Amino acid sequence: MNAAKIFRKTLGIAVLGAAAAAVMTGCAGDEPKETTGYGALEDYTLLMDHFYRVVGTPEEMPYSEMCLYSIAGDDEHLLMETYESGGTDKEIKTEYVVPVSALEESLAAAKKYDMAGWDERDDCEGITGVFIVVKYREEDGSYVRVTSEHMPADNGKTAFNEVGNALSKYATDEYKK
């Protein structure tokens, strides 16, 4: 490669690098926006997952799932992906950009029923007909995962419903990506 081609290639990389830096910071010359909340997490970090499946049927079993993920650099919004299948239907994935309140409300429900403490409880039992999972990220980066196979008899189903309802109210056209 001759010197002119090497120079053009090097110049192109430098220009590309400068353009990418300008996009990441908003405008050339602006300081990068500092994020301290969920936007400081790595992009697409799982924050909340609610899975619901009908079980015990001879056919393919219908299910739905709602997942909340971080959006790097954005402290005010989260990515919500929903997955649905009627069992014999093809899975439908929909994406939403929702406010952080979707996570705050679903976490409040999980904490209201002390889902993190279900593993230590002796009064837990399973339910028939459905399989439900809730998984969420704690502040220290660890995850809590609970299922309908081991939930409190008195209010476990209510707890799962409240977490699911807190998320599903954001699965609307208003927030569709």
Please, could you describe this protein's structure?
- The chain is globular, with a radius of gyration of 22 Å.
- The longest helix has 23 residues, at about 5-25.
- A hairpin with a 5-residue loop joins strand 6 (about 130-135) and strand 7 (about 145).
- Helix 2 runs antiparallel to helix 3.
- The model is unreliable at about 1-30 (pLDDT under 50).
- The protein is built from 3 helices and 8 strands; from the N terminus they run αββββαββββα.
- It folds into 2 domains: about 1-30; about 40-175, 2-Layer Sandwich (Mago nashi protein).
- The protein has a 6-stranded antiparallel beta sheet with strand order 4-3-2-1-6-7, covered by helices on one side. A two-stranded antiparallel ribbon has the order 5-8.
- The protein has about 180 residues and is an alpha+beta fold.
- The protein has helices at about 5-25, 100-110, 155-170, and strands spanning about 45-55, 65-70, 75-85, 90-100, 125, 130-135, 145, 150.
